[in-house]
Amino acid sequence: MEDEYLAQLKNITFGYNEKLICNSININIKKGQITAIMGPSGCGKTTVLHLITGFNKTNEGSVIVFDQKIEQLNRDQLFQLRHNMGMLFQSAVLFLDLNVFDNIAFPLRELNLLPESIIDDIVLMKLEAVGLRGAKDFAIQNLSGGMKRRVALAQAIARDPALLLLDEPFAGQDPVTTGVLTHLIKLINKTLQTTIVLVSHTIQNTFEIANYIYLISEGKIMGEGSPQELINSRDPWVEQFIKGLPDGPIHLRYPAIAFAQELNV
Asked: Can you give the pTM of this predicted structure?
């Protein structure tokens, strides 16, 4: 059964200092599917991606990716494993001293396996896919926030990774571009059989393309299932999140000590 999973988080506990982010959670990423991680801001969605890539190490539990336990890998082994991953960071991390073309070419040149003529073709194809071939010579500083995110997506798919991690790919995009990116993510999944883990707040687009969704909050899995199963759920937490209701078990306040104690009264 485990052969059908490309990545697994087993009984994961993780936190910063005294703040617990993940509390014995279990997440299974099926091969060839789009798995979405959703939940309120600050609940640990990005942390899950960082655990999969090995940027963060668990306090307890095990992260298994490509049949290897992340916590048992040394630095060189971890870098080798990441060659088969692509990641779109939430802040669209790009090299400011390189133009758009060279940012996307960078992960291809890093491996030093392909002639420059082939790299040129690949970069242009990736830029065409995200609608930015005409911006190939632009400086990163001259791009809008939405364009930077699309360049970062093109960079993430440059090497056609087996596992693609997308942190808020729709953030800062207009409705038309969001629709195009939604179609592109689905196309990458279907044509290349790329396994995708998607973190997003965009309910409509995420539910349109995800095969399975985990809803997390307060370090726990609050709900999981197919998009239709979650839509049909009558769990108060799931209903409030999906429908965006102002009243319910989800609160906007970040945990803090009592206000009177903060003021020393």
From this structure: 0.87
